[in-house]
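Hey, resending since the last one bounced:
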Amino acid sequence: MTPTRTADEWVKDGEDFLGSSRWADSVNEYQESLASARDCFDRAIVLEPLHRQAHQGRAEVLVALGDFETAADAYVSVLQLTPAPTAVLLLAAARALSFAERGEAALSACEAALALAPADLEVRVLEAELLSRLRRDEAAVDAWNIALADTAFEKDRRVVRSKVERALALDRLGHPDAALAFAAAFEAHFDKLTLSPSAATFHTALQTSALARREWSACLERVAPSFNGWIRAGGAWLAAKRPDEARAAYERALSLDPKSSRAWFGIAEAHAQAGELEQALTAYDESLKREPDFLGALARRKVIEDELKAR
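The structure tokens again:
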């Protein structure tokens, strides 16, 4: 007769599967390891519904699977089962709650973590992000100031996004330092603004803030970008739904390389975004003259041509 397995044994197996997922050689292997881990933790919870480690392991698996709503619920259960949660556990719970768009609950978890570890940079950055998202801008600026004062954070890949978020919060407050904050962020990190993880925040700034647009335009004139810099600037304006500014940037790129198919493609995209479909077709044609096999231009030209015919 097969002996009955204990909840602790199922938890141990679940932790092993969760660990092995980090070394998976393929997406399928990764998914299979996580599914096995979840099954083990579920079996442990069936045997012992209040098994804290089983609930915590299950929560970690759910985050890895991208099931943030269920993961948030799982972390709430873990915190209820933990009389004295550590800052590490509270941070993990705050992240899951944040992913699930439960800003207030995530912020509460952050504040509890900061009470235990006031110097923890990861918690401080998440707190600032949540305060910005919740539009508690005065508190957000204070939190960003503390995070950005940490010299270790200057090398963090999130620092660009953080500086732009701080500038946006200052702008929403009508603070006189907002323009300087945008200018400093844009000029110091010009080459990183359009890269992940800062791009989305940067595009939002250009789309929503007249002050950000003004300072970005001024920055472009001061920096005098290379051809690639103007191409990136055009892409940023397009992402921010500012087709006129995008077209101007691509035209500056074209002035530096008149043979560029990319610059003409950007000009075409700007015309298309502005609803100027005939001008867009002409620009796509110019791009294809320079690179006949440009698949992006061929595909987009067909889309715009069909849209023009349907009018």
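The domain at 243-311 is CATH 1.25.40.10 (Serine Threonine Protein Phosphatase 5, Tetratricopeptide repeat).

Sorry for the duplicate.
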